[in-house]
Amino acid sequence: MKILEAFQGTDVSRADALEGLKFYGSAARAIDGEDSNDAVHMLFPEKLEAAAHEFLTGFRGASLYAVKANPHPAVLKLLWRAGVRRFDVASLREVELVSDLLPGAELYFMHPVKSRQAIRFAYGRGVRAFSFDSMDELNKIEAETGGASDISLFLRLQVEGGGAAYALGGKFGATLMEAPLLLSRARRMAQKIGVCFHVGSQCMQPGAYREALVKVSAMLQGAGISLDVIDVGGGFPVPYPGMEPPAMQVYFDAIHTALDDCGFADTETLCEPGRALVAKAGAVAVRVEMRRGDDLYLNDGTYGALFDAGVPGWQFPMAVHTADGRKLALGQTGFRFFGPTCDSCDKMEGPFFLPDDIEEGDWIVIQHLGAYGFTMQTRFNGFYSEDLVAVEDIAASNGTVMFPVPIAV
Ligand SMILES: Cc1ncc(COP(=O)(O)O)c(C=O)c1O
User: Fold this and answer.
1) Which atom of ligand 1 is closest in space to residue 273's alpha carbon?
2) Looking at the structure, do residues 137 and 87 belong to the same domain, yes or no?
3) How far is it, in rounded angstroms, from Cα 176 to Cα 222?
4) DSSP class of residue 281?
5) Is any ligand 1 atom within 6 A of the Cβ of residue 63?
6) Would 98 be classed as within a structural domain?
7) What pTM does this model have?
8) Mutate-to-test residue for ligand 1 from 155, 172, 272, highest number of ligand atoms within 8 A of CB
9) What is the pLDDT of residues 302-331, one digit of tens each?
10) Comparing C-alpha atoms, which of 397, 404, 290 is closest to residue 30?
11) What is the CATH number of the domain that holds 359?
């Protein structure tokens, strides 16, 4: 994968954004054309653009893309082209990547525990927004920015995360009790202060944002503190089989109403979507290397792009492409998957329902993996693929059978 030269401005064509990526008309053509020994990672530019449009037009504040979900340069550039101008970064390398690639982007360093080098580097690169959840982190930010006052400081608060498939509250975040003291100190240091939280990833309940906002508002009123910015974080979901959330606009409406009810109607508002911007825009095609009864041995697994299929045990929309073009059986069997590494943790219980007669050499296109898929790969045992191809349409063609068809893709 070649990192493209930096570019700036809104005049980025889709061809510029996808420069260096091979382009195919369908998932089937990509599999045949790549003829790869490794998994084939696919990007669907139209789906990325549609998700960006949904946030940019539906959410009333600014949408920061959470780069960790998929930091591929083509993804960053397509989002920029679609109008995303602010990016949530979590590490020195993410700061470096986005500031090199998109010099006009506004970066928010939203990891609440940063290294001193990372803070210094980020400030030097023009980053002016930092999150924190302790006095120690405020001390680090003060020291490493040379006591800068041209910064925004966001207090990360712990919230419940009850409605989320992935709770994110256990590691970071100050309590509501700790918040007033931390915010008063931040107020003395910064140009703007804000609060941020994360209701947990793949949050299935729009009301979770309201619950968090109500608590933040009560804390601020009790302490007599006002905010310049409120950041409702990420957590916006996408549909997976068995996890079909309400429409995104229901989330936006719930947040907008809660902001108004909680006294934040005139407060600058941010959100930090990762999964919801990129998940539907990516897929990984994996090959069946062996079938043993109802077990399929694949060329990618939990150490690759399929962590979410193995560890939290999620289901994904899938399609099958037979390399020999044969017609697949209509009956389905529930399969267990094994990844290619020698580690016995590299297994995905499923059951994943696929045609009864799937066999060695067939490809399974596992969809909605544009977030936390490609980026989660390790190099363990030599099984990985850094190549991403752009695909015009996921629609079935040339022997690819969508199987089963649990939700619209
Ligand atoms: C601080 C922060 N913001 C945003 C995100 C993106 O979350 P999601 O992909 O659930 O939208 C994460 C994910 O871990 C995060 O830690």
Assistant:
1) 11
2) yes
3) 11
4) G
5) no
6) yes
7) 0.93
8) 272
9) 999 999 999 999 999 999 999 788 889 889
10) 397
11) 2.40.37.10
Same domain, 287 and 240: no
d(CA 326, CA 39): 21
**Same domain as 200, residue 130:** yes
Same domain flag for 212 and 256: yes
- From CA 49, how far away is CA 70, in angstroms rounded? 14
* Residue 300, domain extent: 279-402
Q: What's at 145, amino acid-wise? A: T
Would you place residue 3 in the very low, low, confident or very high pLDDT band (cuts 50, 70, 90)? Answer: very low
Burial 320-342 (b: 16+ CB within 10 A, else e): bbbeeeeebeeebbebebbbbbe
CA 393 to chain centre: 21
Residue located via tokens 């906002």? 213
Using the mean position of ligand 1's atoms as its centre, give its distance from the Cα of residue 76 in Å: 16
Indicate whether 303 and 253 sit together in one domain: no
83 and 188 both lie in a single domain: yes
Contact 187, 228 (CB under 8 A): no
**For ligand 1, is residue 66 a contact (CB within 6 Å)?**
yes
Which region holds residue 381: left if phi is over 0, alpha if psi is between -120 and 50, else beta?
Answer: left
The tokens describing 151, both together, are 């910064």
Identify the domain boundary among 278, 294, 315. Answer: 278
Indicate if 253 and 173 belong to the same structural domain.
yes
CA dihedral 187, 227, 247, 280 (to 10 degrees): -20
Whether ligand 1 lies within 6 angstroms of the CB of 245 is answered as: no
Domain total of the chain = 2
Token reading at 200: 């947990």
Do 236 and 336 fall into the same domain?
no
The C-alpha atoms of residue 198 and residue 159 are separated, in whole angstroms, by 7
Closest residue CA from atom 4 of ligand 1: 234
Mean pLDDT over 169-190 rounds to 94
Residue 31 lies in a domain: no
